[in-house]
Amino acid sequence: MNMHTARAAFGHDNLKAILGISVLAIRWDDAIALLTRLIAERRFTKVSFLNAHNANIAYSDPDFAEALDDFLILPDGIGVDLAAKLLYGEPFPDNLNGTDFVPAFLQASTKPLTVGLLGATRINAEAASVKLAALAVQHNFVVIHDGYFSSAQEPEIIGRIAALRPDMLLVAMGVPRQELWIARHIDERHCTMPVAVGALLDFLSGSVPRAPLWMRRLRLEWLFRLAVEPGRLWRRYVVGNPVFLWRVFKQCLSRGEFR
């Protein structure tokens, strides 16, 4: 299922366009049920998450925006919630950020799955695999390769994925590389559900700390990440967040209304 079939399945009322990217408005439990059904039916579905940072990149990168149009997109973070509130009068039903949602989905999925891990460093990918295996003992987790490989190595890596043919393939290469890589190399011959997961493997490995729970509940995890990695993330948050909101404001103006 991609966003074209999602439009047919859910109708336009369940999709909210944020800077041209269609995002599925769905409850947490319903999203888990949806992904469970898609895997059970072996319906090839590329999955990604939209936050303010991804939306900014897609706004200025037509190739990335085109690739996302063939993904099932779930909402991630307070930025897209604010955008939905401005554009549609209400936020998304739930924050389905991949860092929390993907492990929760794996825990909730009772049918044993084979899950491939591709990306991050080898050490972090292996540590994430151990953590996931403890969280969801019913599944088989396989580290396919780290995220540092050349184009010459790609055929071998793609061959490994095809030989394993996992139910779910977690691709952690950063934005937009992970989505573009999935779009260019992965189809129903390789797995059922490739998921672009960003820094998930780094978080699971413990090498990158999560914000305290109270900050996550207040939707301030971005502020914690900025404090931990200011040199790498200041442009994403200090510059990127206001740019994103300005672009949403312009989208509101182009619609001729505010809600």
Can you walk me through this structure?
The protein has one domain (3-255). The relative contact order is 0.15. The protein has helices at residues 3-10, 28-40, 52-60, 62-68, 78-88, 98-108, 122-135, 154-164, 177-185, 200-205, 213-217, 221-228, 230-255; strands at 15-18, 21-24, 47-50, 72-75, 114-119, 140-145, 168-172, 193-196. The protein has a 4-stranded parallel sheet with strand order 6-5-7-8, with helices on both faces. A two-stranded antiparallel sheet has the order 1-2. It has a two-stranded parallel ribbon with strand order 3-4. It is of the alpha/beta class. Helix content is 53%, strand content 14%. The longest helix has 26 residues, at 230-255. It contains 13 helices and 8 strands. The model has no long low-confidence stretch (mean pLDDT 93).
Give the radius of gyration: 18 Å
Low-confidence stretches: none
Spatially, the strands of the biggest sheet line up as 6-5-7-8
Overall pLDDT: 93
Structural class: alpha/beta
Number of domains: 1
The separation of the N and C termini measures 31 Å
The secondary-structure element order is HEEHEHHEHHEHEHEHEHHHH
Q: Biggest sheet, open or closed, and with what strands and sense?
A: 4 strands, parallel
> Could you give the count of β-strands?
8
Reconstruct the topology from this structure.
Blueprint: H1 3-10, E1 15-18, E2 21-24, H2 28-40, E3 47-50, H3 52-60, H4 62-68, E4 72-75, H5 78-88, H6 98-108, E5 114-119, H7 122-135, E6 140-145, H8 154-164, E7 168-172, H9 177-185, E8 193-196, H10 200-205, H11 213-217, H12 221-228, H13 230-255
Helix pairs in contact: 2-6, 3-4, 3-13, 5-13, 12-13
Organism: Mesorhizobium erdmanii
Keywords: Glycosyltransferase, Transferase
GO molecular function: hexosyltransferase activity
